[in-house]
Design brief:
Largest sheet: 10 strands, mixed
Number of strands: 12
Order of helices and strands: EEEEEEEHHEEEEHE
Strand content: 25-35%
Number of domains: 1
CATH architecture: Beta Barrel
Number of helices: 3
Strand order of the largest sheet: 1-2-5-4-3-12-7-8-9-11
CATH topology: L,D-transpeptidase catalytic domain-like
Structural class: mainly beta
Helix content: 10-25%
Radius of gyration: 16 Å
Amino acid sequence: MQRRSFLVAAASALSLGHGGPAPAAQDFDATIRPSTLPDEMQPREIRIRNDFAPYEIHVDPGQFGLFWTLPDRRAIRYAVGIGRRGLYESGEFRVGAKKKWPSWTPTPEMIARSPDLYLRHQDGMAGGPDNPLGARALYLFAPGGGDTFLRIHGTNQPETIGKRVSNGCARLVNAHIVDLFDRVPLETRVVLYPIPGG
C-alpha cells in the first residue's frame, strides 16, 4: 500500500461538543474534560490534496494524524498517538463494532511482553475513566473478516498524543474520540498507512 500525504490548503478550528448518551445508572461522560492539547493539535477542517472517497478514516502515522474524509477534498484532522515501533500495523480495515466506555482485556501478546503491567488485568477491566480504551472505541475488523484487536480509542492521557506509545492502536483524547465516534457509522473503511521509513 502506498502512503499518501495530506496537503493542507486551508484550515479552520472546529468547536467540538460532545452530546453523550442518555443518562444511565453510571454515566461516565460527566468525567470527560475539554481537550488541553495545543491549538495545532485540536481537530480542524482542512483541504486535502488527494480526492479520497468521503466518510472514511485515514491514519497517517508520519503526521500523527487521523483524517475523517468529507466531500469536496475536505477532511477533519485529529491528532493521534500510534503504536510503538514493531507494534503499529498498517493495512485496510472496517469498523466492525463501536462501544461507549468499553471494557478492556489485554491480549496474550501484551501480557507476555509486559506481565508487570498487564497480568493483573488478564480477566478484563470494566469500562470507565481509568480504562485504557477511554470514553469510546471503534473496533477494527479485517475486510470480510473478524476482529483484529486493533482499536481507535480514547485516552485521558493527552501527553501521549503525537507519540508512539500504544500496543498497536490509535488513540485520541476522550473529547475528540467522542466527536469522531458520533460521526463514524459501522462498516466505515479505515486505512492505516505504513510508518515512513519502516
